[in-house]
Structure formats: structure tokens, C-alpha cells
Write a structure and sequence with these properties.
heterodimer; A: mainly alpha; MetI-like fold; about 70% helix; about 0% strand; B: mainly alpha; 2 domains; extended
Chain lengths: ~325, ~475
């Protein structure tokens, strides 16, 4: 069976460990005490990190009556998945999910394409005023006008209460442009481009057939980060969509639900609940459970995607360490 | 020859005009489609053209009462759209004008057609104006002749004249000739859309700083009448209520930032001790699960806090089940130790993630150093202190300097979601305060002034940190 890259890396780390931690004698008592404490501390911290997710989850799949009484603490009881089905009746949740999915997909795709293209363009030394334009873009990472001028600017451009506000401002991402540029300069041999140019390929052709395929690793990384950012973003919805509740993102909706103290009926639209009587819904979904379930719906995509994306995340932070 | 020289000079006028026209369609102050006082002041020609909805935002009643015909506003809308399209054509023409003769000629055709279309469409706006000025209720509708109408017209006429001149002067190339543009210009044109986007979303907001010098309420126009100079800045110091607000906000901002800075060694320690764990599977497990919280938003962190610490959350129900408490407690609705709580949430979210960079740093340390230290009789902690820590110091310094530079920017999400009536005095950091003042309370000029001071101080801090780094380590951080 082929080993994954991760397993190989782990093996290497282990070998290194034994090489460097070779000791003349046996383990002393001090060593054992240290190790026990070390393992214990990390185990506890990890538990603190995971437990809340687990707790949320078991409370959404357990019998709602038990949940309401606060009896589900460590193990699920009376397992059912009805809460997730009943969520469909929650007012505006569907539009929030579609808006969030759409912005995540479109926003990320455009950002990645633009970062790749601009990252490639700024490596082209012949460009008229190249270093000026590059700096013009990159320097925007280090200052910003502040939230109010940003808001006024967006409303001047007609980007309030407008879905485009989620997409267009994020297209140019200076940090990602630096990452792509650095990657192209360090990992793609210049000879490749030169020979393609000698064969008469245009810049566009070179970009599409050489740069794009070869810089996939870095593009995957920025795509993952971009998607998580889009999925989690909340401020733009909060500030720009004040009179367009249909365009609220999932995070914004969740924020509103969490701050709703009243019972469920406040969250339900009268129209959508037809077929299920209000009392059934009220007993089935008390405020607490519905808040937990919506939270779970918001977390699940991240949790599902995370294991596959972890290596990209880690690569991302490492590349961030290498200055562009 | 002379003719060609003049033609080249004229091209500069041509390009400048195209750029000006292109900029003008984004400026609400110079919107020639604003034929009534009821049209929102903050919409530009582009918005009036592309979004009928925002153009007639306030017209619902006027349409119902028949004061304004819907067709009038439609005419205004479509005319604006056509003007915009014409100007886009001029812009394309200007872009083509840096190519060879054949490109230039095509560009000239574009800009000639574009400017002529724009001029004709501008008459449509005039027609809409004459229609709207016949309204029965001039006091309500406030028909106004768009102030920038003639400015726009003059610019378009110049554009048209220049385009026609160039079109006549540029000789027609034979059919076989290909379109060609020098590579350096071609690359620049490919780059241009992104330069424009950057300008519009990152530089244009700086222009909004002017609001800090005016007495502005949403919907007003800026003019010399409401120019107040440095009133909002002096108010920060002179007005007792504002001053005490600011002192409180700054105390919270700096307090929480310094707590963050004082604990910035923790990720490093986390990484060092994690690397002492031999079992790679356990190490991997810890690393995976401690980084997850970094990828959920602050809203979700609050959702988790809610599920654990609210009245019917985990802690309360557990304590009640065990019979220790009689009733649940809501930890989120208490104002005690709020700085510490925020710090702990920050650590919960970020500790594992911030450690990754140090974990990578540790694997980059020369293993011979450890061997040598062991031979010299160094124990576990001595190796950590004398080999690992010095090896990680450069990374630590960079991150420390960056966090000092960002001392005023705690971000707003975390504090916004955790804020409630009981803790609002201690949780109000600068970013949140600016948001509350500006967006929630509508004190736009004042909050712009505060935000402006913050931005300036942050940039100064960043450059100071950069220079310190350059002096001490001979390396820059930005």
C-alpha cells in the first residue's frame, strides 16, 4: 500500500526524533513524570478544543425533550435526525445558505483566477511600469481607510444591498498575488516560458498552458483559504446588506438567531410551516436546539472539508513565513 | 511628419479625456442623470444606468400619485446606461490607441461612435428633465437641472472632436496588416483591470476621509457651508463625554492588545513541548484538532460559547444534574474579567494554529546542535532553552513586531459577538467603537475622524516596527 505524504513525513520526524534524543541510559523518573504531564496537558487542551463541537452535535441528534431538560451532557440519547429536517421550516435559512454557498464558490473562483493571472503578470519584466503597479497593489495590505469610508465608498458604488459586494472587492487579493508571484519565480523554471515564447506562444497562451497547470499547488492553497474566508465572512453582510435580508450570509443569520431570545415561533415564517402545526414545532424544536442545529449546519462544511485540506492550510502558513 | 507629431500630441488629450470620462461615471457628485432632488445623492451615473431600482428608490409615492411618469424615469435610466456604454467604448478606444496604426484606427472608430452615442443619449436625460419639470408637485419632486450636465456635454464633445480628427488623420492600413501592440503595453492592458479594481476598492475609500472635516448626515452634500475643519478632532479632546469614552475605549484596546502580546510566547511553548512527544500519531492528533477552531468564524465561536456557558448550556446543566447548583448561570451575561475571557477565547481559537509556524521552525533547526548539547550533558530543559528557543527567536521577533504594529487593530468580530449590556463598557475596543458610532448611531464624520487617526497611527507603528527590525536584525518585516 502506498504511503501518503503525511505518513512519510511522520516517519521521518520519528526517525529524527530517535536520532536526536538518543540517550546514554534508561529513562529516569524525571523523564517519566515529564512525559506523563506533557501528554496529559496536550490531551486536556485537545479535548477542550474538540468537546464543544461534540457537545453541540450530540444535542442536535438527541431526543429534544431530554435536551430541553439539559440531560444530554456526554452521550447522545434517543438518536434522531429530525431537527435537521425541520430546519427547512426556519425562516430565511435557505436563502442564507444559498447566498453563502454562491459567494463561496464564485468569490473563490474569481479570486484564484485573478491571483494566478496577476501573479503571473507581475513576473513579466517587460511590462510597462511593472514595479510601480506591483507596489501599487501590494502596498494596500498595509493601510486601510477604515470601516466608515469603506462603507461610504461601497454605497457610492451602488454595492450596498447588492450580491456583487460579496464578490467584486475580493477579486484582487494582494497577499495571494505575492504568494503566486513568489511561487512562479521560485518553482517554475524560466526556461519553460522562454522556450514557449520562442515557439511563438502568446503571453495568454503561456499563462493558460504552462503557468496555470504548474502552479496548481499554490492555487489550491489560496483557494482553500479563500473559501474558508468567504464562508466565514460576516462583517460585509452586517454592514452592507442592512436593507436586504435576503442577502444575509449564513454567519449573519446565525448571529441574528443566537441573539433572538424569544421562542421558535419568532424564527418561523408562518407560510413555511403549513402542514406541521405550530405546537408540534414548538415542542420539537425549542430555541436552544434550533440554535445548536443552525450552528452545526454552519460548522459542518468546515469540519468535513478540514481533514482533506489540512495539508494546504499548513502549507499556507509556511509560505506566509517566506516573505514575498 | 508634422502632422504625425500633432496627431501624437492629440492622442494624449484623447487618452486623458477618456480617463476623465471614465472616472466621472463613478462619481455621484458629478452625476448628470440627477434630474430630481428625490434621486439618492450617493448614486453615480453608472449606478443610475445599471440599477433602475436604486435610481427610483424614493419614487414609490410619486409614481402612485402620478406626479412622475414611470416612463420619465425609465428614459433617464436608459439614457444613463447608453452614456455609460458610450464612455466604455471611448475607454476601449483609448486602450487601443497605444497599439499600431491599425489598432489606433479601430480605437478611433470605437471612440467616435461611443462619444456620439453618449452625446445623443445625454439629450435623452435632458428630455427626461423637461418631462419631470412639468410635474404638478415641484415642491415634492424638486426637479433640478443636473449640475454636471454641461460639464459632461463639453467633455463628450471634446472627445468626439478629437476622435473624429484622429480618425481622419490616421491613414487606412492595407487589409493584410495585422493588429499589433508592443508586448510591454499589452501586458499593461492585461494588468489594468486589476489596477482599477485596486484603486476603486483600496484607494478610493481614502477619499472618504474628507467626511471627517464636514458636518455630514447621511444623504447630505458636502459643501463649504457644512465644512467644520478640525471640529471632530478637537471634540475628541475637549468634549468631556467623548473624552471619557475615548479613554475607556483606548484602555480596553490597549489592555487587550497587551494581554495578547504578553501571551505571545505561548504558541512557541506549545510547539516546543509538542515536539517532545514521541508518539507521532498522538502528535498529529493534537495538531489536527487544536487547529480546527482557527477555521471557524467568531460568530461560531460565540455559538459554541453559548452552548457551553449559557443558562441552559453544558456547564449549567452538568452542575444542576450533579446537584451542585440549583439553577443555571449565564456566564456570557456577566461583565467580570471580560478582558481575560476574551484572551482565553482568542487562545482557544488561535493557539494551535499559531504554533504551526514554530513547529515548522523546530524541524528546521540543525540537529547536530542537539547532539552536541546532549554530549555536553545538557538535559531536556537545557536543550529547549539553549538550542530550540534561540532557534525560534527570529520568528518570534517578527511576529511580536507585527503584533505591536497592530496594537490598535483588535478587529471587531470577536468583540461584537460577545458584547452585551452587561459587559459593553469593558469590551468596547476601538474597531467596535467606530462601527457603533458610525454605522449604528450614524455619527459618520466623528467616526471617520476616529478611524482616520487609527489608520494613521497604525501605519506609523508599522513603519517604526519595520525600522526597529531593520536596525536590530538587519531585516525588514514588510
Amino acid at each position: 500500500m502506498a504511503k501518503t505524504a503525511q505518513e512519510k513525513a511522520d516517519e521521518k520526524a520519528e526517525k529524527l526524533y530517535y536520532k536526536t534524543h538518543k540517550k546514554p541510559g534508561k529513562k529516569t523518573v524525571g523523564d517519566i513524570v515529564f512525559e506523563v504531564i506533557n501528554y496529559l496537558v496536550f490531551a486536556i487542551f485537545t479535548l477542550i478544543c474538540i468537546f464543544p463541537f461534540y457537545y453541540l452535535f450530540i444535542n442536535t441528534i438527541s431526543d429534544n425533550e431530554l435536551v430541553r431538560k439539559g440531560l444530554i451532557n456526554f452521550f447522545p440519547r434517543g438518536i434522531q435526525f429530525g431537527n435537521y429536517v425541520r430546519l427547512l421550516a426556519v425562516n430565511d435559512l435557505f436563502s442564507a445558505i444559498s447566498v453563502t454557498v454562491l459567494r463561496t464558490v464564485i468569490g473563490t473562483a474569481l479570486m484564484v483566477a485573478a491571483s494566478a493571472f496577476v501573479g503571473y503578470l507581475v513576473t513579466q519584466k517587460e511590462m510597462w511600469g511593472r514595479s510601480i503597479w506591483y507596489r501599487f497593489i501590494v502596498v494596500t495590505m498595509y493601510f486601510n481607510a477604515g470601516i466608515i469610508p469603506w462603507y461610504l465608498n461601497m454605497s457610492m458604488l451602488g454595492l450596498t444591498n447588492n450580491f456583487a459586494a460579496y464578490i467584486i472587492p475580493g477579486i484582487v487579493a494582494p497577499y495571494n498575488i505575492i504568494l503566486v508571484k513568489t511561487y512562479i519565480e521560485s518553482s517554475i523554471p524560466a526556461e519553460l516560458e522562454e522556450s514557449a515564447e520562442l515557439d511563438g506562444a502568446s503571453k495568454m497562451k503561456i499563462f493558460l498552458s504552462i503557468i496555470w497547470p504548474l502552479s496548481k499547488p499554490i492555487l489550491a492553497t489560496i483557494a482553500v483559504f479563500g473559501a474558508v474566508g468567504q464562508w466565514n465572512s460576516f462583517q460585509d453582510s452586517l454592514i452592507l446588506m442592512q436593507s436586504a435580508p435576503k442577502l444575509y450570509t449564513l454567519q449573519h443569520r446565525l448571529y441574528i438567531y443566537l441573539n433572538t431570545t424569544s421562542n421558535l415561533s419568532a424564527l418561523m415564517s408562518s407560510g413555511n410551516t403549513s402542514g406541521i402545526s405550530q405546537s408540534v414545532l414548538d415542542s420539537a424544536l425549542n430555541g436552544k436546539v434550533i440554535k445548536y442545529t443552525i450552528s452545526m449546519v454552519t460548522i459542518i462544511p468546515i469540519l468535513c472539508v478540514y481533514p482533506f485540506m489540512q495539508r494546504y492550510f499548513e502549507k499556507g502558513i509556511m509560505m506566509g513565513a517566506v516573505k514575498g | 511628419m508634422v502632422k504625425a507629431k500633432i496627431s501624437d500630441k492629440i492622442y494624449y488629450v484623447y487618452r486623458v479625456m477618456a480617463i476623465l470620462l471614465f472616472v466621472v461615471i463613478f462619481l455621484p457628485a458629478a452625476n448628470p442623470a440627477k434630474i430630481s432632488g428625490m434621486i439618492n445623492r450617493s448614486i453615480s451615473l453608472l449606478t443610475s444606468g445599471f440599477s433602475y431600482g436604486s435610481l427610483v428608490d424614493n419614487f414609490g409615492r410619486a409614481f402612485r400619485k402620478g406626479w412622475v411618469l414611470e416612463s420619465t424615469m425609465r428614459l433617464d435610466n436608459i439614457a444613463s446606461l447608453l452614456v455609460c456604454i458610450g464612455i466604455f467604448a471611448c475607454a476601449v478606444g483609448a486602450c487601443l490607441s497605444i497599439g499600431n496604426n491599425k489598432c489606433k484606427r479601430l480605437g478611433n472608430i470605437f471612440s467616435t461612435v461611443g462619444s456620439v452615442v453618449s452625446i445623443i443619449s445625454l439629450q435623452g436625460i435632458y428630455l427626461a428633465y423637461t418631462q419631470i419639470s412639468l410635474t404638478e408637485k415641484p415642491s415634492k419632486i424638486e426637479p433640478t437641472f443636473p449640475p454636471f450636465y454641461f460639464g459632461m456635454l463639453i467633455m463628450l464633445i471634446i472627445m468626439a472632436v478629437v476622435s473624429v480628427y484622429e480618425l481622419i488623420v490616421t491613414f487606412k492600413e492595407p487589409k493584410e496588416q495585422k493588429f499589433h501592440m508592443e508586448t510591454k503595453y499589452r501586458l499593461f492592458l492585461m494588468m489594468m483591470p486589476f489596477i482599477l479594481l485596486t484603486f476603486v476598492f483600496s484607494y478610493l475609500p481614502l477619499f472618504g476621509w474628507r467626511y471627517a472635516f464636514f458636518d455630514y448626515k447621511s444623504g447630505d452634500v458636502l459643501s463649504m457651508e457644512n465644512f467644520v475643519g478640525f471640529k471632530w478632532f478637537t471634540q475628541l479632546l475637549k468634549n468631556a463625554a467623548t473624552r471619557s469614552d475615548m479613554i475607556r475605549v483606548m484602555k480596553n484596546t490597549l489592555g487587550m492588545s497587551f494581554l495578547g502580546i504578553f501571551t505571545s510566547w505561548m504558541p512557541m511553548v506549545f510547539a516546543i513541548f509538542l515536539s517532545e512527544i514521541k508518539n507521532s500519531r498522538f502528535r498529529r492528533f493534537v495538531q489536527t484538532f487544536t487547529t480546527i477552531p482557527n477555521f471557524i468564524s467568531w460568530v461560531l465561536v460565540f455559538a459554541i460559547a453559548f452552548s457551553i456557558f449559557s443558562t441552559d448550556g453544558f456547564i449549567s446543566s452538568l452542575m444542576m444534574n450533579l446537584g451542585i447548583w440549583d439553577q443555571g448561570k449565564n456566564f456570557l451575561m456577566s461583565g467580570n474579567h471580560i478582558w481575560l475571557k476574551m484572551l482565553l477565547w482568542g487562545l482557544w481559537k488561535g493557539l494551535g494554529w499559531s504554533a504551526i509556524i514554530y513547529i515548522a521552525g523546530i524541524s528546521g533547526i540543525d540537529q547536530q546542535l542537539y547532539e552536541a548539547a546532549t554530549v555536553d550533558g545538557a538535559g531536556r530543559f537545557q536543550r529547549m532553552w539553549h538550542v530550540t528557543v534561540p532557534g525560534l527567536m527570529p520568528t518570534f521577533y517578527v511576529l511580536l513586531l507585527m503584533s505591536i504594529a497592530g496594537i490598535l487593530s483588535n478587529g471587531m468580530d470577536q468583540y461584537l459577538v460577545f458584547e452585551n449590556s452587561t459587559n459593553t463598557t469593558d469590551i468596547m475596543v476601538l474597531d467596535l467603537y467606530v462601527y457603533k458610532m458610525g454605522i449604528v448611531n450614524g455619527a459618520i464624520p466623528f467616526s471617520t475622524a476616529v478611524g482616520m487617526l487609527k489608520s494613521v497611527v497604525s501605519v506609523v507603528l508599522l513603519f517604526t516596527a519595520n525600522n526597529v527590525s531593520k536596525l536590530v536584525r538587519g531585516e525588514t518585516i514588510v
